[in-house]
Amino acid sequence: MPVGYAQDAARKILKKLPVGYPQLLxxxxxxxxxxxxxxxxxxxxxxxxxxxxxxxxxxxxxxxxVLQWKFSPGISExxxxxxxxxxxxxxxxx
Length: 94
Prior knowledge:
The protein has about 90 residues and is α+β, with helices and mostly antiparallel strands. The chain has one domain (about 5-85): TolA/TonB C-terminal domain (2-Layer Sandwich), CATH 3.30.2420.10. The chain is about 20% helix and about 35% strand. The chain is built from 3 helices and 5 strands; from the N terminus they run αβαββαββ. The strands form 2 sheets. The chain has a 3-stranded antiparallel beta sheet with strand order 3-2-5, covered by helices on one side. The chain has a two-stranded antiparallel ribbon with strand order 1-4. The longest helix is centred in the middle third of the chain and has 9 residues, at about 60-65. The model is unreliable at about 1-10 (pLDDT under 50).
């Protein structure tokens, strides 16, 4: 395994779009964390995501936003786990 491979696996998030929170769940105080496996292309764009766990309804919203995130460039395609937190008490930007 090349020495740079381990460093490549920990790519930084350069652009993070807000995740859409289903309004009904937010109003009812339902929150949680959705864990995703993110497949990142060498140019830093997201190729695909896979839900690893979390509330199924929240898990529908998380990948839609994460697919638009941008990571630092790398030498090859990599995968990374990310957690998307849904907090019903957080203030919205509306």
